[in-house]
Design a protein that fits this description.
- The chain is 80% helix and 2% strand.
- The protein has one domain: Arp2/3 complex 21 kDa subunit ARPC3.
- Strand 1 and strand 2 form a beta hairpin.
- The protein is built from ten helices and two strands; from the N terminus they run αββααααααααα.
- It has 198 residues and is an all-alpha fold.
């Protein structure tokens, strides 16, 4: 397969994954555990970051963030601090995609399966971790009030248990459980890009 054909195929893959991220996030807003919808888009972000390149992961993360804002999933925070909300939502998506791509690129040199599983694990950790940092930076007074009203002894307990605990565990668990499928998708895509017959 020529380099040009490979490049075009990667663009097609990225376009398809962009559409999948849009659809999964826009309609996934109805699947909730706790305060937030489950981010089903982390799987196509990992696949794109591994198949295309690091920046594709960042692009898919950006699309994820934009759809979160457009779907109304971040409205509760937009009402408190619009600028802070936009910053946090966009940065967490982009960094999750970049981190997945970086993890895959680094560890795939040792073993592609380890690279893919590591990317699948790091993506939800970065996504949630950046949200937590943003919560402390932009929303601490409000979250302190919410936590006290909900009976939590500290804002940290409220953030980790009341807000993100179950949600993160579901997202993380999905990525871990689906890691074999993610590995298979990446291997299949790489074979197609290289002109394999699998």
């Amino acid at each position: 397969m020529s380099k040009r054909h490979s490049y075009i195929l990667k663009l097609v893959i990225l376009a398809l994954l962009t559409a999948i991220v849009f659809i999964l996030q826009f309609f996934g807003v109805f699947i909730r555990f706790g305060m937030f919808s489950i981010s089903l888009v982390l799987i196509p972000i990992v696949v794109g970051a591994a198949l295309v390149n690091l920046w594709a992961g960042g692009w898919l993360g950006l699309v994820f963030g934009l759809v979160v804002l457009a779907s109304g999933d971040a409205n509760i925070f937009l009402a408190i601090d619009p600028v802070g909300t936009i910053i946090v939502v966009i940065i967490k998506g982009v960094l999750a995609g970049l981190a997945a791509g970086a993890a895959y690129r680094l560890l795939a040199k040792i073993n592609k399966t380890i690279g893919a599983i590591s990317a699948a694990i790091i993506c939800p950790i970065v996504n949630t971790g950046v949200f937590v940092i943003g919560a402390y930076v932009f929303f601490l007074p409000t979250l302190t009030e919410w936590g006290a009203a909900a009976g939590f002894s500290s804002v940290t307990a409220f953030i980790f248990v009341g807000m993100i605990g179950l949600n993160f565990l579901v997202e993380f668990g999905l990525n871990v459980v689906l890691s074999p499928a993610i590995v298979r998708l990446i291997q299949y895509g790489q074979n197609k890009i290289k002109g394999g017959t699998e």
